[in-house]
Amino acid sequence: MSGYGRRGSRRNEPGSEDAPARKPPADMEAFAREICLRQLAMAPRTRSQLADALTRKEVPKEVSDKVLERYSEVGLIDDEAFAQSWVRSRHANRGLAPRALSAELRQRGVDDETIKEAVAEIQPEDLESAAHALVAKKLSSTRSLPPDKRTTRLVGMLARKGYPPGLAYRVVKEALTGAAHPDEDDDLSLPD
């Protein structure tokens, strides 16, 4: 095969002699703004996520910094608002606890102080209530398991969502003994 067909083509592979040289855009700043706007149109982004997108597109750092600074000034990039919104949404919809939320925000490039402020909005009673709701939702699907495996499964589910071990064990124990749900017909004894 000559190398020009659809399969096995080497024409556009990096390093091949036939690969066209990448021509930089005439207006790099406009190019950077367009990248940022496309990213922001898909979903809210942190400054770090946008900087990474610009780096991948080989936008020079000075141009990237200028565009990102301007977008921060006009409010298109706001890591504090992003973090607060992320925490509210992920805690309400997925039941995530501060530890898991902090890890997710860190992955998105949010600084530690901003993360700390955002997760501080979750009140202890809200955290416990969310843990009870998660366990109640999962309780019936673990009914056929032996008590020790059932406890392990439920505590593990809460741990993966970032709940502290003490709270996780207490909530699961309450759910399994019926203290949290007196109408629930669960007990810890094995069937005869």
TrEMBL record:
Pfam families: RecX_HTH1, RecX_HTH2, RecX_HTH3. Its main location: cytoplasm. It is found in: Cytoplasm. Residues 10-27 have a biased composition (Basic and acidic residues). Residues 32-70 form the RecX first three-helical domain. The keyword Transcription regulation does not apply. Transmembrane segments: none annotated. Residues 78-118 form the RecX second three-helical domain. Signal peptide: none annotated. InterPro entries: RecX_HTH_1st (IPR053926), RecX_HTH_2nd (IPR053924), RecX_HTH_3rd (IPR053925), Regulatory_RecX (IPR003783), WH-like_DNA-bd_sf (IPR036388). The keyword Amino-acid biosynthesis does not apply. PANTHER family: REGULATORY PROTEIN RECX FAMILY PROTEIN. Modulates RecA activity. This is Regulatory protein RecX. It comes from Actinocorallia longicatena.
